[in-house]
Amino acid sequence: MTQKLSLPFSGAQGAISEKTLAMHHDKLYAGYVDKKDEVQSKIDVLAKTGDVSTANQSYSELRALKDGETFAVNGVYLHEWYFENLGGDGQPTGTVAEALTTKYGSLDDFLKYFAACGMAARGWVVLAWDTHDKDLKIYISDAHNQGGVWGAIPLLVMDVYEHAYFMDFGSDRKAYIQDFLDHITWSKVEERFLNIN
Fold first, then answer.
1. Same domain, 138 and 51
2. What span, in angstroms and rounded, lies between the C-alpha atoms of 154 and 120?
């Protein structure tokens, strides 16, 4: 069974209310954890019984479970990285700040581009280290299992699905994105960055 991680902070995060965070973490994220375990349990049964003779690319139980697996697993992981990003003072420092300045010209230019990606995405924005290109990249995703790049290690993850902000910001995604950027825990981003370099 997958362990549900607690929020790494308490209370509201900037303008993101405790009510939004509780709903997001305790219901939505917890639901992905439960579904991940359920799907993986069913896959384990299929793999052990060897009853996969109907597997095909149009539709089969195995195909449906494997598709659900990537959606649920990424739903868990992306939310955990997102929650770990919250709760800071929004001031990028250290090696990752230097790397972002080198890549984007300035931290302001990086933040503007990251925010614009948040306006363009339907689900997630991920600053990642692309192990193939050996470079920082920003990728967007419209669904948990769409848009991710294999070999890219997430450093900073922002949820832009409406459930992350609608109770507090209504349809003002731009204000939510700014609030998110103002409260990033950059020490966590730095830790992730140093672990790959």
1. no
2. 18
